[in-house]
Amino acid sequence: MSRKVFRRIGLGLVVVLAAAAAAGGVWLATLPGAPTGPNPEPVPQAEVDATLAALAPPKRERPLVAVVGINDTTEVTDYLVPYGILHHADVADVVALATEPGPVTLYPALRVEPQQTVADFDAAHPDGADYVVVPRMSRDDDPVVLDWLRAQHAKGAIVIGVCAGAKVVAASGLLDGRRATTHWYFVDELRELEPNVEYVPDRRFVVDRGVATTTGITASMPAMLTLIEAIAGRERAAAVAAELGVTSWDARHDSAAFVFNRPFALTIVRNTTAFWNDDRLGIELTDGIDEVSLALVADAWSRTYRSQAVSFADGPVVSRGGLQVLPEEQSAPGDLLSIDDRPPAQRLASTLDEIAGAYGDATADVVVTELEYPRG
After folding, report:
1. Omega of the bond prior to 263 within 30 degrees of 0, cis?
2. Which of 343, 342, 139, 363 is nearest to 240 (CA)?
3. Is the pTM of this model over 0.85?
4. Residues with Cβ within 8 Å of residue 258, at least 6 apart in sequence
5. How far is the C-alpha of 220 from the C-alpha of 79, rounded, in Å?
6. How many Å apart are CA 363 and CA 354, to the nearest integer?
């Protein structure tokens, strides 16, 4: 499935087609306006303690983490950010997997060479992983993924569905009767896949009996920091958070702030129809490039409905965490986007400001809503 088709089953084109079908814009007028509300309350300490206890390493003193994707299309931040954060934290061994040999095409930008297939992993680790991270994929029903998740969970792995990866976890049957969350846009689909799931609002991540799920894309940052805290303690998590530029990583969240509303729909319609301003922005790949910053910058700029990030280099490069990143082109396709040495969370904040400067605050708000990022 191509990235274009992945978009159709995601957010953007659904809005455009529905708007085009709505005579006179009546449908748009029925959507709610921008949400307003109080800041979310802190998570009770008892709940924090229970979450950390539920995420404690189930098998090894130094855990083994597998991040799994399908070769066709897997969400870039869901795949690269957990890998990058955990690898840099050095509290676990982390492996990037795919269902089949060959590159993983990431959405909405980038390509990487996985380190192993799931079959290779099983041969090397017959007792299974300690943790399995499940990103959003272009299909929720890939039989190789579903069988492998069931087998890993049966061997004692804690399964973590990041963003709409929760739908893949649901399709495997592992959310039957469990509490869970997911990206705001896919809550109804999650319930369709698993009618017995108990959706939990106002939490960026939820853990229930060996299965964890998160809200939208950027929730992978606080979720991975919480996992680091569960594995190696608060002090180590705080040190990694400082490297990321993150000041707080608890599970508090204002679900009502992320909804399908009129400003969101109107901005996507306007930007999508501005076809003469479809900017292609180059990201130069270099050896040692940080996976977390790379994913966040590429993801954000590719969600404006005005621009697309495109990686370029003479050939494959090796990232900071040892992943082989494959360029999409060999030369710069247009203006350049920088991946500098600032902490990734600060780089994301700057990227959102740059998007607002280029295309307006409404477009930056669309990106924030798609990333389900509690900006500010």
Report:
1. no
2. 343
3. yes
4. 35, 184, 215, 216, 369, 372
5. 9
6. 11
In angstroms, rounded to a whole number, what is the distance separating the alpha carbons of residues 197 and 353? Answer: 37
* DSSP output for 109-145: S-EEE-SEEHHHHHHH-TT--SEEEE--BS-S--HHH
Residue 152 vs residues 106, 145, 155: alpha-carbon distances, Å? 24, 10, 5
Instruction: Measure the CA–CA gap between 217 and 35, rounded to whole angstroms.
Output: 20
pLDDT in tens, 25-77: 554 445 555 554 456 888 999 999 999 999 999 999 999 999 999 999 999 99
CB 67 within 8 A of CB 114: no
Amino acid present at 281: L
Q: Choose among 127, 110, 128, 112: nearest CA to 66.
A: 128
Decide: 251 and 222 in contact? Cβ < 8 Å: yes
Q: What is the pLDDT of residues 264-297, one digit of tens each?
A: 999 999 998 876 668 999 999 999 999 999 999 9
